[in-house]
Amino acid sequence: AVYVYKNNVNLEGRKNAYLVVEFNILFRDQELGKLVTSDKPTPENSIMRALILEAISGKTFEEVADLEAREIIRQDLLERLNEKFAPKPPKEGEKEDPKHKKPKKPIKEVLVVGWAIAQ
C-alpha cells in the first residue's frame, strides 16, 4: 500500500505564499498500510494526516526553499510516523504472538514527489 498525501500550507511570515506538497508513504506494516489507505475514514488515516500537517505547517519561506531543509523535514516526518505507529510492547502477563509480529519501524519510506512554493 502507498498513501498519497497532498496539501497546500500557508508559509509563516509571507502573505499569499504557500508550500504545495505531495508525499508518498511506503509501509513495512501492510496491515497499517491498508488501514491508512482505506476508502473509509480510520483513526490511523486521521492520525497520519495530522502528523504530516504538524511536520510541515508553521514553516517559513526560507525553511522550505532550502533543499537541505526539505530532506530534514522528510527525515523528521519518517521518524515521527515510525515513533507513533511503532508496535506497543505486550502488556504484563501477555505474550507476543510470533505469527502477528509487527515491524519495529512500520513506515518504510517517505518520498517527496511534489514540493513547490506558490505565491
Could you characterize what this model shows?
The chain is α+β, with helices and mostly antiparallel strands and 119 residues long. Helix content is 38%, strand content 26%. It has a 3-stranded antiparallel beta sheet with strand order 1-2-3. Strand 1 and strand 2 form a beta hairpin. The longest helix has 19 residues. The protein is elongated, with a radius of gyration of 16 Å.
Summarize this, please?
This protein is an alpha+beta fold.
Mean pLDDT: 90
- State the total count of DSSP E strands: 3
- Characterize the largest beta sheet: strand count, sense, and whether it forms a barrel: 3 strands, antiparallel
Q: Assign an overall shape.
A: elongated
Please give the radius of gyration in angstroms: 16 Å
Order of helices and strands: EEHHHHE
Uncertain runs are none
Report the helical percentage.
25-40%
Q: Major sheet: order of its strands?
A: 1-2-3
Question: What class do helices, strands and sheet pairing give?
Answer: alpha+beta
Give the count of helical stretches.
4
The span between the termini is: 33 Å
Features:
single chain; 119 residues; alpha+beta; three-stranded antiparallel beta sheet
Fold topology:
Blueprint: E1 2-10, E2 18-27, H1 30-36, H2 43-56, H3 61-65, H4 67-85, E3 107-118
Antiparallel strand pairs: 1-2, 2-3
Helix pairs in contact: 2-4
